[in-house]
Design the sequence.
């Protein structure tokens, strides 16, 4: 293969990454009406997340992170505390280095957004205040996505993330007042990583004040953000987008695959963005 062909492939690959692509994702390309989820108020939670590995090689830079949220609150319950389409709540995404023994290391970055959460549909045609979605199935929650923006943030090949927010009784600053945030959950995927890797399958990182919620019964402490076991097959529903260098040894392959990879990555990204927009309508 000629040096010119290799250079062309590398260039197409690099241009693709410059526009941003998924470095880690377990989000469905098309969001279903709902997914299994972790309720922060119901499970006495302040923060929940996991350890992820990114596709590509160093250097790695994060542009944005998108999470899926399952909202169980509907307008006739809490309409006075929001607007007709939904309500706002501050959500914080923390990014940590991986410490010795896969412990939570130093904080790399933290970003808080004033997230808009659409009301789920009103109860209809289903038992126990559930609603019937367009597929004819009954659900208690509905999915939407929230995106955190990081401006070309340099990160290691692996990191631990944690999503944090306050409910009436839990979080770093509980509100002390019941609200729709008490019915807001972090959605969980069951497919594992479709881009990137899950270095510790079946493992999550959790801050809950209930000892019995941890797999070790709280032996390693409660009310701290730490590793927990027994989560297979679930992981937080999340996507990291950004740029990464090609893996070592792949440069000759890029000549033939660069444009194909770029097109597939951009199509996937477009689908995610289109779905994120539609879920906020």
Sequence:
């Amino acid at each position: 293969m000629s040096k010119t062909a290799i250079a062309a492939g590398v260039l197409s690959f690099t241009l693709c990454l410059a526009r941003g692509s998924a470095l880690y994702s377990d989000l469905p390309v098309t969001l279903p009406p709902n997914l299994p989820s972790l309720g922060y108020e119901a499970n006495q939670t302040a923060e929940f997340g996991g350890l992820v590995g990114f596709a590509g090689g160093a250097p790695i830079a994060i542009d944005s992170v998108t999470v899926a949220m399952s909202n169980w609150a509907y307008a006739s319950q809490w309409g006075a505390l929001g607007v007709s389409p939904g309500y706002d709540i501050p959500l914080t995404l923390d990014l940590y280095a991986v410490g010795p023994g896969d412990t939570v290391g130093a904080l790399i970055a933290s970003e808080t957004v004033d997230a808009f959460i659409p009301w789920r549909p009103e109860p209809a045609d289903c038992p126990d205040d559930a609603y019937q979605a367009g597929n004819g199935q009954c659900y208690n929650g509905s999915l939407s996505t929230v995106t955190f923006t990081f401006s070309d943030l340099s990160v290691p090949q692996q990191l631990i993330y944690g999503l944090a927010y306050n409910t009436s009784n839990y979080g770093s600053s509980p509100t002390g007042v019941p609200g729709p945030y008490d019915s807001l959950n972090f959605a969980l995927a069951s497919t594992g990583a479709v881009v990137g890797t899950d270095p510790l399958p079946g493992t999550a990182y959790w801050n809950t004040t209930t000892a019995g919620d941890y797999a070790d019964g709280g032996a390693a402490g409660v009310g701290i953000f730490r590793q927990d076991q027994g989560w297979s097959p679930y992981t937080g529903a999340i996507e990291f987008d950004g740029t990464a260098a090609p893996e070592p040894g792949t440069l000759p392959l890029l000549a033939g695959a660069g444009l194909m990879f770029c097109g597939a990555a951009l199509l996937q990204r477009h689908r995610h963005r289109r779905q994120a927009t539609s879920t906020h309508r």
User: Anything to note?
Assistant: The first strand starts at residue 21 and ends at 25. The radius of gyration is 20 Å. Residues 65 and 240 are 5 Å apart (CA to CA).
